[in-house]
Design brief:
This protein is α+β, with helices and mostly antiparallel strands. It has 9 helices and 23 strands. Strands 1, 2, 3, 5, 8, 9, 10, 11, 12, 13, 19, 22 and 23 form a 13-stranded mixed sheet that branches. Strands 4, 6, 7, 14, 15, 16, 17, 18, 20 and 21 form a 10-stranded antiparallel sheet that branches.
Length: 461
């Protein structure tokens, strides 16, 4: 690359946007990674890398390190997420035709621990100034292609009663109360066929071929008035504050699971396995949280599934760590739609051949975990391809960001969807299958996991 990569980061006054970073989710093409009020939001695109296949993480790592190696970086804030930043989304499967990608935005707004900043990035070699960066941000926010969000903005999916048409081969799966003439259809497998796949997976587990299998399914929502991605992201960030809301190139969602977060030499992860629909607590004795603790923490099946997921992560992370600790007992993660058994893992990274491993090098070693694939992963992966009849694309793959200093946050793209056309969204959900799994129960769990995206589209379930 002959052009010069330049970045300028200047402080912002966080008090000027009291809603935090989510207040900048005003464009359908926005790039974002937010939790509570903090995170990163990007506008525009000055560079892109794409790859497929088993080496996609390492190829992206090489591209990014080459790009930032001789970058001209002026950073008056100097914290994780300042300076050069790229947002990324990677395919779940090495066999997927879906292109994994890193995107370098033109403008980034960030907020962390009360410190706010603005970064402008360019490849044209021109001089960058604070006034120019602020003007560029203003242009993006005022552009006519923005979604035009206001404090009282309503989603476009709620405005037009015109009925939609079904995708080819789709059949409406259930009589849900749908907003604005939206329709919901089966994806790759009908509910009956997917339950049969779960039953087949249980039989394979009972043969001893594997301990756990994660099976996913998809549904397609057609919204005739158009999909308002910015509104979807705002809804998710407001309702699911304990999750990480992500938006990368049409992939949107709010994940509760952190694959790897790197700050300096410290790496952290949040592992989930074991799920309970909050609606199951209706009418039960005691508090809802006591019910969740009794059903999740007290379930041998749920604890076994969780232990497999923790063991998978810590085993793969150990070669890169000089010290590691994890919760001795999982805790109950309370979300608006479900409860999860959760554990946090923290590791101090070791020098590997004289270097601390990068985010993408760690992802290459960790993905896919048992939480989204199964164990052993090679056996589970082959069975997924046989039973799902589905290319997951970016679903359950890593999604997040990284900077030039090696810092980054990468979640697993769960509770999400891919916007496939201006009116069509494909939603994904999956379940961990172990010996003792009941297909009807697993199907109900997928509907609980679809709920965040369906509600953000204005579709009740």
């Amino acid at each position: 690359m002959t052009s010069t990569f330049r970045t300028l980061t200047v402080p912002l006054d966080a008090e000027t946007f009291p809603g935090g970073v989510p207040s900048f989710l005003v464009r359908d093409d926005v790039l974002c990674w937010t939790r509570r009020e903090a995170g990163l939001v990007g506008f525009g695109e000055i560079a892109r890398f794409t790859a497929t296949g088993p080496e996609r993480f390492l190829e992206a790592d090489i591209w990014w390190r080459h790009l930032v190696l001789e970058a001209d970086i002026e950073d008056a804030v100097d914290c994780p997420g300042t300076g050069p930043v790229a947002f990324g989304s990677f395919a779940f499967s090495k066999a997927s035709a879906h292109e994994s990608r890193l995107l370098v935005p033109e403008i980034v707004v960030g907020l962390r621990d009360g410190q706010a900043w603005l970064t402008q990035l360019t490849l044209d070699g021109g001089e960058l100034t604070e006034a120019g960066a602020r003007a560029a941000l203003d242009r993006w926010l005022r552009s006519t292609s923005a979604s035009g969000a206001t404090d009282g903005a309503e989603s476009a999916v709620l405005d037009d009663p015109t009925p939609g048409t079904a995708p080819a081969g789709g059949a409406v799966v259930r009589p849900l109360p749908l907003a604005a003439g939206a329709t919901l259809h089966t994806g790759s497998l009908s509910e009956e066929d997917w339950m049969a796949a779960v039953a087949a997976g249980v039989e394979e587990i009972r043969t001893g071929a594997l301990e756990k299998l994660v099976l996913a399914r998809d549904v397609v929502a057609t919204v005739p008035t158009g999909v308002n991605a910015a509104q979807v992201l705002r809804e998710l960030s407001a309702r699911y504050r304990e999750c990480w809301t992500y938006g990368v190139d049409g992939l949107v969602g709010a994940t509760p699971e952190m694959l790897i977060q790197v700050e300096g030499r410290t790496a952290q992860a949040r592992v989930l396995a074991g799920t309970l629909d909050r609606r199951d607590a209706d009418g039960m004795a005691g508090s809802p949280l006591e019910f969740a603790e009794r059903v999740l923490a007290g379930s041998e099946k749920q604890r076994h599934e969780h232990d497999i997921a923790i063991q998978s992560l810590t085993t793969q992370l150990a070669p890169f760590s000089e010290a590691m600790n994890a919760h001795s007992e999982p805790f109950i993660l309370e979300l608006p739609n479900v409860w999860h058994l959760a554990s946090d893992v923290k590791a101090e990274l070791a020098d590997v051949e004289g270097h601390v491993p990068t985010c993408l090098a760690l992802i290459n070693a960790l993905h896919p975990t048992a939480a989204v694939c199964g164990t052993p992963t090679t056996v589970a992966g082959a069975l997924i391809r046989k039973l799902e009849h589905l290319d997951r694309g970016p679903y359950a793959g890593p999604v997040g960001w990284l900077d030039a200093a090696g810092n980054g946050e990468w979640g697993i793209a769960l509770r999400g969807a891919v916007i496939e056309s201006p009116q069509t969204v494909r939603l994904y959900a999956g379940c961990g299958v172990v010996d003792g799994s009941v297909p009807e129960t697993e199907l109900a769990e997928t509907w609980a996991k679809f709920r965040p995206m369906l509600e953000s589209l204005g579709i009740s379930c």
